[in-house]
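Thread title: Can someone regenerate the structure for this chain?

I was given the following input by a collaborator and told the matching structure tokens would be attached. They weren't. Posting the sequence so someone can regenerate them.
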Amino acid sequence: MGDKILKNLVFPYLRISIIILIFFALVLLYFNIWVGIVASALVACVIFYFIKSTDDQRKVANIYVKNIANELDNTISYSIINHPLPLCMINNKGKLTLFNKKFKEIYPNAEMLSMDIVQLTGIKGQDFYTEDIAEKPILVTTNGKTYKVLASYLEEDRDSSVVLYWVDVTNFELLKVLYKDEKNCFAYIDVDNYDELIASSPDDRKSIIAAEIEKVIRTWASKLSASITRYRAHQYFIVFENKYFEKLEANKFDILDEIREIETDADFPVSLSIGIGVGGKNPAQQDEYAAAALDLALGRGGDQAVVKKVSKIEYYGGRLQTVEKRNKGKSRIMAHALRQLIDQSSQVIVMGHKRPDMDSFGAALGISRIARNRNKESVIVINSYNDSLTQMYNRAVTEGEYKFVNSENALTLVDKDTLIVVVDCHRPSLVECSDLLNKSDKLVVIDHHRKTEGFIDNATLTYMEAYASSTCELVTEILQYVGDKKEIDKLEAEALLAGITVDTNRFSIKTGVRTFEAASWLRRMGADTATVRQFFQTDLDDFKKRAEIISNAILLPNGIAISNSTSRQVDVQVLNSQAADEILNIKGIRASFVAGQNEEGITVISARSLGEINVQTIMEKLGGGGNLTKAGAQVDISVEETLIRLQEIIEEID
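Best answer:
Regenerated them for you:
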């Protein structure tokens, strides 16, 4: 050690001095040989003197370094043993090589050299040799206390022994837990269809039912030690501590089931829509989260709780069929608002979702008719379509009254005064041309699917009703109230009726009074049921493929069936949906799921239900959506992996 110090501090300067002296001696030899000889002799004496003195200094330095090292060893040993923090040393194999008294107090069973750190503490020695250990310190809990373990390396390469310091952070961790538990959560509660519920009850029962509803809600709030305020007859605002939120999640918001047990005189049970905001930075943001969550719950048809966190939305409930609104006042208001927007626009561009089905295409033709009745040019955006839509599309092209363009051409037509109408879809990622959504200040969304996160939030007018059987049903009602005397064409009436027929599985599911009223009006407008039926005809090959899918069906517990197509299909989405509908006809089946790959290798899933199982919540976990009885999703994994994941989700929900 002394040699190293001497070499680093003395030798560089000595070497320079000697070189300079030798240089001057050589110069003198050149000019005067006798003077040069004398100078050379003097340089030799100086070199000898320096070597001798350096050797003496080296001996002194070595003695000094040894003394310092001994003192340091004693100091380090004393410091380690009597360090105020518990510490230990482990080698790169995770074996204990040294520890102090404080560490022994935490782990009385600790033994040097023979004990592995993972056996003693439960943490892996290799965890301390990772690059991110400084950013992510390890926490260890033992004997009711929490320690943060910090690492100090003996060498820079982190390949030798490491000293671990155990810092007691129990109070800090308890403070974190208290802070988290005592943060406030905001919740809004809305009693679904409250006015219709009370109106359907006899006069002597109205107050009793209202009191029972309030009692259940307030009792539930008292279990949460919550502050509750009733600000309208059917709306409540609740504030409770975050520590109760985990209980709500664990019980899956059992108030949704409890409230349905109230006996009413209506033909539908009591249900709630609950929106909860969690994790907001301040009360204003927390309130914003809760209001947005309630809006989602109402947009999804009610009877559910929606929790909005900072970057995540979770759904609970949603088991009931959405209750049909018997009052058509909203349809009338929407029709008049749409008419005003059309009148104030230069043109109308209509688009549905990618690879449109009959509901999307029929609704687009209906909106196009409204625009043309208002003497506005109408354009329908469509990039591609499946075989089931071929007959209807060709007929529309043949009649020549409709203008169809692709996304690229639509972008060249749009301007700020263009009205863009989105039908049968409310998510930007699913529309035919998402770029159109930001090209105009006028945007209308008409859809019957339950609202999901990532919806179009900049719409001028939004008409979303989860109770409706189809978007064609909503457009049909708008046509009746839009105020135009001109009749719709036969093709438009048949396209709208076909859209209703396909989404209700031939009027067998999710069909209300207003659905039949819309179909009746379309029939009066000239829709031919025989022609509509022809739209659903398939060729023999498709029939055989559908039969193969049905024969591959596997029955799971609780009346659930899953199946898949064995090869890639161009129109796998249509094939899957038709097979899923057919499987529901099997006795004992309550829900069906069919998966298959399209020509691009994407796995497409179609889900159908009789109403007892909410297939929308299942498909949402796979990135899809839909409604209670009809939903779908597309994933980038194989069909086999999809079926395994599907079964896991079904088991979780059950």
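Confidence is low (pLDDT under 50) at residues 4-10.
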